[in-house]
Amino acid sequence: MEAPHNSPAAEAAAGTASVSLTLAVESPEQMQALGRRIAAVLRPGDLVMLTGELGAGKTTLTRGLGEGLGVRGAVTSPTFVIARVHPPLGAGPALVHVDAYRLGGGLDEMEDLDLDVSLPESVVVVEWGDGKVEELSDDRLQVLIDRAVGDTDDERRTVTLVGVGARWAGLRTESWIPWAVAGA
To answer: Could you tell me the strand order of the sheet in which 94-99 lies?
Structure first.
């Protein structure tokens, strides 16, 4: 499978990245499984930024993150409440799930959410966070989800993981089989 052209966000993010890799996801179930796999490498203090069109699978991926982290409560889109905190069921970190779609400003507008206070002991996942939350951490995992646009029921997605900063320098393609896209 040939890797499709990266989105503008992927190209911009790659300029500051420690590492970038492209994965193929064929179904919502695989997207959720990818979220569980990503959760296995997350730790308190991690910032994960999700970028993709409406319906790309950002919340589905986050649902998998929640399963993998073992948090309480159903992970659903926080579009209208802006943020939800899912406490851990065990000893792991809480999941703070933010949807910044309706927020127009940068980090100043998001200060009321106290993400900087939550970040050290939680995993913070921000949908639509480009240009809004990068200042929270020098290290972050950017997840860029590309899908076919228009009138289509194609469930295939191309997911680009962009590790920014020293925290993500060890991200390697072979760790993500079976999703890795050959030649990407």
So the answer is: 19-25, 157-164, 140-147, 47-52, 122-127, 94-99, 83-86
According to DSSP, the β-strands at 122-127 and 83-86 are unpaired
pTM, whole model, 2 decimals? Answer: 0.80
DSSP of 132-157, one letter per residue? TSGGG-SSEEEEEEEE--SS-----E
Nearest-angstrom CA–CA distance, 101 and 27:
24
Return d(Cα 97, Cα 62) in angstroms, integer. Answer: 8
Give the chain's largest Cα–Cα span: 44
Burial classification of residue 80, based on how many CB atoms lie within 10 Å of its CB (0-12 exposed, 13-18 middle, 19 or more buried): exposed
Model confidence over 59-88: pLDDT tens digits?
A: 999 999 999 999 998 898 876 667 788 899
Q: Which of these, 132, 129, 130, 121, lies nearest to 96 by C-alpha position?
A: 121
DSSP-derived secondary structure for 16-67: T-SEEEEEEE-SHHHHHHHHHHHHTT--TT-EEEEEE-TTSSHHHHHHHHHH
